[in-house]
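Morning run. Coffee first, then this:
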Amino acid sequence: MDDNNILAVVLAGGKSKRFGEDKNQAKLGDKTLLEHVLSKISNKFHETLIVSSHSLKIKKRKNEIVIPDCLDNLGPLGGVLSSMKWVKEKQKAYRWIATFPSDTPFFDTLIIEEYKKKIKLNESSLYFVKSNNKRHNIFGLWSIDLLETLENDLIKNNFRKVEEWANKIGVKTIDVKIKKFDPFFNINTIKDLEEAQNILKEYKND
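And here it is:
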């Protein structure tokens, strides 16, 4: 990463209700789902923040930091707020955070280059990735300037859904073309994991 001041944030605090256990630790090939995501982004950013109140069994790289959610039961928006507050509390220079879900192992890292382009254009304080007319609300680029608005809407106005909050404040999209399979396929169930095992075989041979 160059001097664009982007902090990578992996949101790994979900309850995994449909999966039946902490899916961050589920194995896909020779890596856990969380390790797949971290291996893609850790060398592309100065630091990577992992937001989770779970006990994560990972061998952290030196530029990876794990923090808990600042407040309980606020969903992904709570994870975003936690990362922004960490930036402020640690007096970091980051002006943006790039969020990645921990259960989507096949995404194309070229979106990171698109993030850097959007920062230079400065057309919005929030961007989400979009493919096949579907918006992926956890793959986002968020300005740190949104912190106060987000905190107020979470605590006082009871916003919980990322999509609703983003629509309220205004969001632009970054369109990604899908080739052989959906790179934003996310794993919510054991059946999804089985499908991901098949995708992985093709993914490696692509």
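The mean pLDDT is 88. Good start to the day.
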